[in-house]
Amino acid sequence: MTTTLWWSEAELSIGRVGLASSERGLARLFLPVELPERDARLRRTFGPHELRPDDGRNDQARGQLEAYLAGQRGDFDLSLDPRGTPFQLAVWRAVAEVGRGRTATYGEIARRVGQPRAVRAVGAANGDNPLAIVVPCHRIVGSTGQLTGYGGGLPLKEWLLRLEGAMPRDDEGWAGWAARRAAAQPSLLIGPRSTRVFCRPGCRYTQRLSRVPATFGSADEAAREGYRACRVCHPV
User: Fold this and answer.
1) Fewest beta carbons less than 10 Å away: which of 28, 101, 178, 235?
2) Does the annotation mark 203 as catalytic?
3) How far apart are the first and last CA of the chain?
4) Contact 161, 152 (CB under 8 A)
């Protein structure tokens, strides 16, 4: 069976992206570095397909992407049509639940889909995400918060995380980042993934951050993720 896709390209602040929508919604988003492999990637995902010029179906996605990249929008409200295996779809759903300004590890996603040992499979599924940015695979980091592979390139991943507030801006260090996040969210708690201890943003241990930490809205949330309270700042 041949899939019909409506195709358009848009010049955005991150470069030229490609958008392909099916009758059910946005089915594929190509980041700038992926565009040269468009045809091969479409065949791999959809098999036989017909590519038609966009008839307006991609307008909403393009507009929301522009607003997101300009810092004017936090979430997307689009009809989506990702194609994948049941496991991939489960991973992408879990990834989509990681909110703006938050991050998760591959291991955490594996636990959330009920397969805690499938960390590598989660990484592979994350790499095959057909809707980058909209399904925010850039928010998935390594076990200690290190930035790992991203289809759009690690510089873009870092830029997106800075845009969302999951990492310091270029003009601030981790201490300034923690203070800014806490001012916007007074209940914020920070958990360095290397120690799995959660602290108040002003704790001296948070000043030593060098990788993306976990963030929590409450001590109960941190405890559910397996973090223990700091004995210095006593965040409970």
Assistant:
1) 101
2) no
3) 58
4) no
Domain ranges in the chain?
A: 3-69, 86-164, 174-229
Query: What are the pLDDT digits (tens) for 63-89?
Result: 999 999 999 998 999 999 999 999 999
Which residues of the chain have a pLDDT value below 50? none
Cβ–Cβ < 8 Å for 161, 232: no
Query: Which runs of E-coded beta strand occur in 22-173?
Result: 26-30, 49-53, 104-105, 140-141
Q: What pTM, to 2 d.p., does this model score? A: 0.94
Q: What SS3 state is found at 45?
A: helix
CATH of domain 174-229: 3.40.10.10
Place of tokens 């040992």: 117
Please name the CATH architecture into which domain 3-69 falls.
Answer: 2-Layer Sandwich (3.30)
For 211, other C-beta atoms within 10 Å of its C-beta total 15
Catalytic option among 137, 199, 203, 230: 137
